[in-house]
Amino acid sequence: MTRARSHWILPLSLLAALLLGLLPLPEALQPLRPYWLALVLGYWVIEDPERVGLGAAFAVGLIGDLAFGTLLGEQALRLVVLAFILQRFRARLRFFPLWQQALAIGALLLNDRIVGAAVHLAVGEPRLPWSHWVSPLVGMLLWPLVYLALDALRLGHWRRR
């Protein structure tokens, strides 16, 4: 697949991540919802850093703030922090086996929860229950599937031969 024909995959994957984040879940499953925007944006920061960087993370975060009704700038800050760390360690992370990448992404998602908790604390919002700290584990377990699916789409392996 040529580079020109694959330009639709980036915005479509980010839109799909946004929609997955908006998908209604039963109250018992809400704490298990992975941070889809972070997973998809993380993939693009690792695999296509020329197109996706801190500016894209900020823009996607603002769109996420508006869509989810969170404090304006909260997700933007969280995604910029995530993208910055990924950019810093991208050269190493790209060559990790997938299970090691999943561990690193899990650590980044846990860091994201800490940044979110700090923002909530700074503005005086109530703390999230402990069950919301399980979400990074779910994201870590989903990382190999997200990575392989987006890689197949980006490289064109999904097409019939």
TrEMBL record:
Q: Which InterPro entries match?
A: Cell_shape_determining_MreD, MreD_proteobac
Per the record, the GO terms for biological process are: regulation of cell shape
Which keywords does the record carry?
Answer: Cell inner membrane, Cell membrane, Cell shape, Membrane, Transmembrane, Transmembrane helix
Query: Where in or outside the cell is it found?
Result: Cell inner membrane; Cell membrane
Q: What is the recorded membrane topology of this protein? A: Multi-pass membrane protein
GO cellular component terms given for this protein: plasma membrane
Membrane-spanning segments: 52-72, 93-110, 130-150
Similarity section: Belongs to the MreD family.
Role played: Involved in formation of the rod shape of the cell. May also contribute to regulation of formation of penicillin-binding proteins.
Q: What is this protein called?
A: Rod shape-determining protein MreD
